[in-house]
Specification:
Layout (H helix, E strand, L loop, with lengths): L8 H15 L4 E6 L7 H13 L3 E7 L3 H9 L7 E4 L6 H13 L3 E4 L1
Parallel strand pairs: 1-2, 2-3, 3-4
Helix pairs in contact: 1-2
Length: about 110
């Protein structure tokens, strides 16, 4: 996951490159925007897409995104994330069923934590 303090295009690019270099693997299989709150959501997402274009990141996902955040990415013409990682278990399922259905309809894999 991209560190939550990386809330701009430039800082997200730097953080993604630094993470990859620290791992020493040459690429990262999947990088997630940790949270939609506190920054420039589309800019941060664009930075991960740029890292993907450069071959540093293989796939781009998000974490803790609600339907409104996913719809914002769509509104601005961005490709859908491959995964949305959210808290999901029987105690919160009824609150998140609409989000789960939206992800399914948008071909976004829902990943529970």
């Amino acid at each position: 996951k991209l560190h939550p303090e990386s809330r701009s295009f430039k800082s997200a690019l730097a953080a993604g490159r630094e993470s990859c270099a620290s791992l020493g693997l040459g690429y990262v299989d999947r990088m997630l925007v940790h949270t939609p709150r506190g920054g420039k959501l589309v800019e941060v997402y664009d930075a991960l897409l740029q890292l993907q274009e450069e071959g540093i990141v293989r796939s781009v996902g998000v974490s803790n995104f609600g339907q409104e955040h996913l719809e914002a990415l769509e509104y601005y013409g961005r490709p859908a994330p491959v995964v949305n990682q959210i808290e999901m278990h029987p105690l919160v399922y009824s609150e998140r069923v609409q989000l789960a259905e939206h992800c399914r309809a948008s071909s976004i894999q829902l990943e529970a934590f």
